[in-house]
Design goal:
This protein is α+β, with helices and mostly antiparallel strands and 117 residues long. The longest helix has 17 residues. The N and C termini lie far apart (37 Å).
């Protein structure tokens, strides 16, 4: 491992300890829900839908360390954060061992497939 890699790993541990919170992953192919830790945010974003009119929306995001998971989450998997079930709609690796999971608040029949533990 490189010096930069070692520093990145040490820093990610500090970030998760300081800003992270407990979450529960519901991953396809895993028999049980998996406890984990991630940094959650639900910030407002302005989106221009090619109409020239900005639209404000909330984009929930969970950042997790890939090495902490037994499998990489994929679109359609789910995660419970702060007691709320979210569906994973996009997985974006950052190139330094973290995954940025773009989330959508679950509901309807999708949520029943992932009961809260």
């Amino acid at each position: 491992m490189t010096v930069f890699g070692d520093l990145t790993r040490a820093m990610s541990s500090i970030v998760l300890t300081t800003f992270g919170e407990p979450v529960v992953f519901h991953l396809e192919g895993q028999a049980e829900a998996l406890p984990g830790r991630g940094v959650f945010s639900a910030a407002h974003q302005e989106v221009d839908a090619s109409t020239g009119v900005p639209v404000s929306m909330v984009q929930p995001v969970l950042e997790v360390r890939q090495a902490d998971l037994p499998a990489t989450p994929t679109e359609g998997d789910a995660v419970t954060v702060q007691g709320v079930l979210y569906l994973i709609v996009d997985v974006r690796p950052d190139g330094h061992g973290f995954l940025k999971l773009m989330l959508h608040k679950g509901g309807g029949h999708e949520a029943s497939a992932y009961p809260d533990p």
